[in-house]
Amino acid sequence: VQLVESGGGLVQPGGSLRLSCAASGFTFSSYAMRWDRQAPGKEREMVAGITSAGGSTNYADSVKGRFTISRDNSKNTVYLQMNSLKPEDTAVYYCYVRKWSLDYWGQGTQVTVSS
After folding, report:
1. CB atoms within 10 A of CB 70
2. CA nearest 35: which of 24, 50, 22, 23?
3. How many other CB atoms are there within 10 angstroms of residue 19's CB atom?
4. Which ranges of 31-113 would DSSP assign to H, the alpha helix?
5. How far is CA 50 from CA 11, 28, 47, 103, in A?
6. Which of 11, 20, 63, 112 is buried most deeply by CB count within 10 Å?
7. Residue 88's pLDDT is what?
8. Backbone CA torsion sign across 85, 72, 54, 46
9. Phi, psi of 33 (to 5 degrees)
10. CA torsion 23→79→9→112, rounded to 10°?
């Protein structure tokens, strides 16, 4: 299993970013996917999840209405569109999949929201 995140960076409050996670090494279309994040000094937390076919999503309360998770099974990629970013969204964002009772995360991509 390999998960490679991209799209992070520095953005001003109120701005937008789109994260991507390219997956390989497993049958992507058969697995639910998730985005997690970890801020400095805090535990890693779930941000958003999406079912294998993309028909159902769920979000942390802190990002509802601002973030949108989606996937393209033809490209083995999951996305996180982040709008109206706040300084408290600053964190390393990780792509996650649970396969055969094992947890896999990518290396993460840094998102910094600051003026």
Report:
1. 14
2. 50
3. 24
4. none
5. 25, 12, 11, 16
6. 63
7. 96
8. negative
9. -125, 160
10. -110
Reading phi first (left if > 0) and then psi (alpha if -120 to 50, else beta), residue 7 is in left
H or E stretch at 91: strand 91-99
Q: Give me 12's structure tokens.
A: 């001003």
pLDDT in tens for each of the 115 residues of the chain? 999 999 999 999 999 999 999 999 999 999 999 999 999 999 999 999 999 999 999 999 999 999 999 999 999 999 999 999 999 999 999 999 999 999 999 999 999 999 9
pLDDT recorded at residue 32:
98
